[in-house]
From TrEMBL:
It comes from Flavobacterium plantiphilum. Residues 7-68 form the DUF2007 domain. InterPro entries: DUF2007. It comes from the Bacteria. This is DUF2007 domain-containing protein.
Length: 72
């Protein structure tokens, strides 16, 4: 079992999607590349924030993710 990236983008959108996924009982890992780069003393050109879930939770979370993507 591994992690699957389900979102890359702005912190505001990532936090909104994280809340929706967690509301259905799926744990979400948030990776903040901007904060990590800032703390290391350099900037980041990659996606600002990434969300990951367990691959085994994808079937449960996918309808929420797809609805979110259609509404952004």
């Amino acid at each position: 079992m591994g992690l699957m990236k389900v979102f890359s983008g702005s912190e505001i959108l990532a936090l909104a999607l994280k809340e929706k996924i967690e509301a259905i009982g799926v744990d979400v890992l948030l990776k903040d590349n901007i904060q990590s780069a800032r703390l290391a003393g350099f900037g980041s050109l990659s996606a600002a924030v990434e969300l990951f879930i367990q691959e085994t939770d994808f079937a449960k979370a996918n309808p929420v993710i797809e609805e979110f993507r259609l509404n952004i």
